C-alpha cells in the first residue's frame, strides 16, 4: 500500500505555507512563501488576494516534491487561515475587487463607533458572541460596500462574492465552490453562534446582501474536491488559525486550553458544546464542528503584545541583538528588582479592553539594570497570561489544570518557567511546534477517515517539555498585586479630545 | 612571504579602518581609501557582514564594526539562540528515534545542557536544561572534545568500568573526527547509551553537539554497536541545525 499523507495550507498574515504530514502527525516537508503587506495609509493593512492564491499554486507542487510524494498519495487537504481578513471578488471573472483588508486594519474605527449607537447593536453582540470592534469582518464588509461605487447593487444581484481567506482559497481550488466553515464564520459578527447560520438580523444591521455570502459548513466534513493546485484531492477541513492550533494541540475536552505565543498571544479554552456567555473581556467563538455533530465552543482571550515586546526591546532599545538573548540577559539577575513593564502600546486587550491605556515602566530606581528590564519584559507575558486565565476560570466555571503552549516563544525556558510559576499549573510543550498547520491536517485527515477518531489523534500528541510551578505562594501573591498596580497606572493616559 | 592570503589582508585593513574611523563609513569611502575596486570591497564587506564582524546601517547603507567582533574574546555563541534555532530539528529527531534528545555546549570543562526534548512516551520526565555532564564520559562531550584545539586538560574520572582512560580516549576522539559522530555505551551510567554529532557554525567551527540517549538495548544492537538508523537521524539533525547556524551555506 502506498504511504499516504495529509497536506495543510496555513494561510497566515505574513506568509502562506504548505506542509505535508504523515500518519504520526510528523512534518514531512514544508514550502513557504511570504506575501507583500500593503500599508496605503496609517492604520490600513491590505493583502493582494490574487498574489496569495498564486503562492498556493506555486507551493503545492514544491511541498509534494520535497516530501517525495505524488498527488495520488495525498489523502486530504486542510486549510487554516488568518482570521477576519476579508475579500470581495467578481463571481464571473474571479478577479478581486480591490485588495483584501486584513484583521489588523483599523479603518472601520469611526464606522464601528457609529454602528455601536444604532438600535440593535446590543442584540448583535449577544447573537454573534463578539463585541463590536474593528477586528471583525462585518464592519469591514460594510466599509468595502460603501467605498466602491455600485458595489452594493452588484452584491444585491449576486454578481460579487465575499469571503474570508479560506473561502477565497476553496473557491479557487474547486473553481467555484463558495463555502466557509463555522469557525471563520463566527468571526464575522454575521453568524448566529447558536444556530450556526447567517443571522438575518445581523445582515440587516450591516446592510449586507445574503447573495454575496458563502454557505456555512461544519469545519470538518466536505468542502469539495480540488481541481487546481491539488487536483483530485478532497478538501476535508477549514479552520481559523487559532482554532486550528487548539485542534492541533488536541484540546478536545472542556477545560483543555492552549496558548500560542507569537508577536501577540491567543489563549483558547475548550468549553464543550455549551456556549458560554462571554464576560471579563473574553470572546465566545466556535472551536470546531464535525459534520453531523454539535459544534464545540471555546472562550478566547487575546493579548496584543507579548513577543513584540521582546522585538521592541531588541529593535527600539537595542539592548539585545536577537530575541533569544532576552533570556540570557534576564538570567543575569535573579528577580525584577521591583521593576514592571506593562506593554499597553496600543491599549490593552483581554481582560481589560482599555483603548486609552498606554505602556508604562514602573518601579525604576538607580539599582535597576538592563537585566532587570529584560526580566520585566518576560514577566509581562507571564502576568498577562495569568490575567486571561483568571478571566477564563471566572467566566467558564472550569479550572485550568495545565496550559499547553506553542509558538516561537516556547523556546524561552525562563519564560515557560515564569508562566508555570504565576499560573500555578504545569506548562506543557508538545512535540510539534507547528500546531496551526497540524490542526488543519488533523481535521482534514479525520474528515476522510485517514485518522479514525479524536482518540487516534490524541495518541500522536507527546510531551516534549514540561515546566512545573516552583514559586512561593506568598511571593506570587505579592508580585501579582504589584503587577495589577502597574496595570492601573496605564489607564486613562490618552485623554479624550 | 609565502602563504599570505590577499583578501584576508584586505579584510583586516577594512576592519582597522572601521575601528579607527569616526563612526560609519560608506562603500565608496572605504574602496577609495584602500585603493580597491568597489566590487571587491563590496564582496569583502558582504562576507564580513555574513560572519557578523561588520554591520550595515539599514537607512544610510553605511558600514560599522559588528557585534560579533566585540564578543570575539568571550564565548560568542548565545546558548538561548542555539536552542531557539535548533528546536524545529530536535523535535523530529525525538519522534524519529523514539528517544530523548539533548543539545550541549562546553562550559568550564563540562557539557552544559542547553536544550532537552523528552522521550516521546509521555512518562514523567524532568527538564535538565542547565545541568552539567562530564566531557569525556558522554557522547555529547566527546564530540565537543574531539573538535577542540589543545590537549586534554579535563578531569578524566571513571564513572563506570567502561569510562575511557586517557589513551583510549585519545584514540576515540580521532575516530570521532574521522566518522563525524560519537557514541557512549555505558561510559557514564550502566545500562545507558548515547549517540551524538557536531553542530557547526560559521566557517565550520563546532559550537555544540546534539544527541539521543536511552537504554543500551534500544540505542545499540546485540554487539553493543549503535544502531545505524539512529546514527543517521542524529547526523541529519546536526547537519540541518548547522545549516541554520550558518555553516557552509547549502
Automatic annotation (TrEMBL), chain A:
Pathway: Polyol metabolism; glycerol degradation via glycerol kinase pathway; sn-glycerol 3-phosphate from glycerol: step 1/1. GO terms for molecular function: kinase activity. ATP binds at residues 13-15, 263, 307, 311, 408. It catalyses: glycerol + ATP = sn-glycerol 3-phosphate + ADP + H(+). It comes from Actinoplanes palleronii. Key enzyme in the regulation of glycerol uptake and metabolism. Catalyzes the phosphorylation of glycerol to yield sn-glycerol 3-phosphate. SUPFAM superfamilies: Actin-like ATPase domain. Sn-glycerol 3-phosphate binds at residues 13, 83-84, 135, 241. Gene3D superfamilies: 3.30.420.40. This is Glycerol kinase. Belongs to the FGGY kinase family. InterPro entries: ATPase_NBD, Carb_kinase_FGGY, Carb_kinase_FGGY_CS, FGGY_C, FGGY_N, Glycerol_kin. Keywords: ATP-binding, Glycerol metabolism, Kinase, Nucleotide-binding, Transferase.
UniProtKB/TrEMBL annotation, chain B:
Keywords: DNA-binding, Transcription, Transcription regulation. It holds the Pfam family IclR_C. SUPFAM superfamilies: GAF domain-like, Winged helix' DNA-binding domain. Gene3D superfamilies: 3.30.450.40, Winged helix-like DNA-binding domain superfamily/Winged helix DNA-binding domain. Residues 5-67 form the HTH iclR-type domain. It comes from the Bacteria. The keyword Cell cycle does not apply. Residues 68-247 form the IclR-ED domain. This is IclR family transcriptional regulator. It comes from Actinoplanes palleronii. The lineage of its organism: Bacteria, Bacillati, Actinomycetota, Actinomycetes, Micromonosporales.
Amino acid at each position: 500500500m502506498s504511504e499516504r499523507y495529509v497536506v495543510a495550507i496555513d494561510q497566515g498574515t505574513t506568509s502562506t505555507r504548505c506542509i505535508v504530514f504523515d500518519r504520526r502527525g510528523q512534518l514531512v516537508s514544508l514550502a513557504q512563501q511570504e506575501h507583500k503587506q500593503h500599508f496605503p495609509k496609517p492604520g490600513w493593512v491590505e493583502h493582494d488576494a490574487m498574489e496569495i492564491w498564486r503562492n498556493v499554486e506555486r507551493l503545492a507542487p514544491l511541498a509534494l516534491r520535497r516530501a517525495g510524494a505524488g498527488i495520488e498519495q495525498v489523502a486530504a487537504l486542510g486549510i487554516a487561515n488568518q482570521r477576519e481578513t476579508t475579500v470581495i471578488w467578481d463571481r464571473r471573472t474571479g478577479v478581486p475587487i480591490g485588495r483584501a483588508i486584513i484583521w489588523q486594519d483599523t479603518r472601520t474605527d469611526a464606522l464601528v463607533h457609529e454602528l455601536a449607537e444604532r438600535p440593535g447593536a446590543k442584540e448583535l453582540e449577544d447573537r454573534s458572541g463578539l463585541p463590536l470592534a474593528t477586528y471583525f469582518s462585518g464592519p469591514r464588509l460594510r466599509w468595502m460596500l460603501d467605498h466602491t461605487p455600485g458595489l452594493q447593487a452588484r452584491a444585491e444581484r449576486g454578481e460579487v462574492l465575499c469571503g474570508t481567506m479560506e473561502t477565497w482559497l476553496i473557491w479557487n481550488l474547486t473553481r467555484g465552490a463558495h463555502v466557509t466553515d463555522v469557525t471563520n464564520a463566527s468571526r464575522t459578527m454575521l453568524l448566529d453562534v447558536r444556530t450556526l447560520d447567517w443571522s438575518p438580523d445581523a445582515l440587516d444591521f450591516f446592510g449586507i446582501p445574503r447573495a454575496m455570502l458563502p454557505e456555512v459548513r461544519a469545519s470538518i466534513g466536505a468542502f469539495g474536491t480540488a481541481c487546481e493546485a491539488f487536483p483530485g484531492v478532497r478538501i476535508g477541513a477549514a479552520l481559523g488559525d487559532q482554532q486550528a492550533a487548539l485542534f492541533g494541540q488536541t484540546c478536545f475536552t472542556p477545560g483543555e486550553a492552549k496558548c500560542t505565543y507569537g508577536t501577540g498571544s491567543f489563549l483558547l479554552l475548550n468549553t464543550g458544546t455549551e456556549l458560554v456567555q462571554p464576560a471579563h473581556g473574553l470572546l465566545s467563538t466556535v472551536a470546531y464542528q464535525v459534520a453531523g455533530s454539535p459544534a464545540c465552543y471555546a472562550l478566547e482571550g487575546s493579548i496584543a503584545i507579548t513577543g513584540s515586546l521582546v522585538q521592541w526591546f531588541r529593535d527600539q532599545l537595542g539592548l539585545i541583538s536577537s530575541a533569544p538573548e532576552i533570556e540570557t540577559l534576564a538570567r543575569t539577575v535573579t528577580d525584577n528588582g521591583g521593576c514592571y513593564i506593562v506593554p499597553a502600546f496600543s491599549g490593552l486587550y483581554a481582560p481589560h479592553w482599555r483603548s486609552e491605556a498606554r505602556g508604562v515602566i514602573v518601579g525604576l530606581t538607580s539599582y535597576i539594570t538592563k537585566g532587570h528590564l529584560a526580566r520585566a519584559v518576560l514577566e509581562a507575558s507571564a502576568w498577562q497570561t495569568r490575567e486571561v486565565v483568571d478571566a477564563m476560570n471566572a467566566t467558564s466555571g472550569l479550572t485550568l489544570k495545565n496550559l499547553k503552549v506553542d509558538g516561537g516563544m516556547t523556546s524561552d525556558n525562563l519564560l515557560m518557567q515564569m508562566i508555570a510559576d504565576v499560573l500555578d499549573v504545569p506548562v506543557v510543550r508538545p512535540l510539534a511546534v507547528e500546531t496551526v498547520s497540524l490542526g488543519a491536517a488533523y481535521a482534514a485527515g479525520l474528515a476522510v477517515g485517514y485518522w479514525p477518531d479524536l482518540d487516534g489523534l490524541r495518541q500522536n500528541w507527546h510531551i516534549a517539555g514540561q515546566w512545573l510551578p516552583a514559586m512561593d505562594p506568598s511571593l506570587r501573591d505579592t508580585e501579582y498585586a504589584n503587577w495589577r498596580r502597574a496595570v492601573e497606572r496605564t489607564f486613562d493616559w490618552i485623554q479624550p479630545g | 612571504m609565502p602563504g599570505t592570503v590577499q583578501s584576508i589582508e584586505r579584510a583586516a585593513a577594512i576592519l582597522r579602518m572601521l575601528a579607527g574611523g569616526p563612526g560609519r563609513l560608506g562603500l565608496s569611502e572605504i574602496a577609495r581609501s584602500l585603493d580597491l575596486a568597489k566590487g571587491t570591497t563590496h564582496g569583502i564587506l558582504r562576507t564580513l557582514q555574513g560572519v557578523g564582524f561588520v554591520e550595515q546601517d539599514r537607512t544610510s547603507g553605511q558600514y560599522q564594526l559588528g557585534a560579533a567582533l566585540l564578543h570575539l574574546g568571550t564565548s560568542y555563541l548565545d546558548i538561548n539562540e542555539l536552542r531557539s534555532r535548533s528546536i524545529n530539528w530536535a523535535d523530529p529527531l525525538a519522534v524519529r528515534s523514539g528517544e530523548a534528545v539533548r543539545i550541549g555546549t562546553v562550559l568550564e570543562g563540562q557539557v552544559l545542557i542547553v536544550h532537552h526534548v523528552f522521550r516521546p512516551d509521555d512518562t514523567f520526565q524532568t527538564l535538565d536544561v542547565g545541568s552539567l555532564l562530564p566531557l569525556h564520559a558522554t557522547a555529547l562531550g566527546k564530540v565537543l572534545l574531539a573538535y577542540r584545539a589543545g590537549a586534554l586538560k579535563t578531569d578524566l574520572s571513571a564513572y563506570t568500568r567502561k569510562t575511557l582512560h586517557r589513551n583510549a580516549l585519545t584514540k576515540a576522539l580521532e575516530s570521532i573526527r574521522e566518522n563525524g559522530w560519537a557514541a557512549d555505551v555505558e561510559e557514564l551510567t550502566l545500562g545507558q547509551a548515547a549517540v551524538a554529532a557536531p553542530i557547526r557554525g560559521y566557517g565550520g567551527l563546532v559550537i555544540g553537539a546534539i544527541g539521543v540517549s536511552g537504554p543500551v538495548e534500544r540505542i545499540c544492537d546485540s554487539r553493543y554497536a549503535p544502531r545505524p538508523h539512529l546514527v543517521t537521524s542524529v547526523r541529519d539533525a546536526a547537519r540541518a541545525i548547522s545549516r541554520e547556524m550558518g555553516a557552509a551555506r547549502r
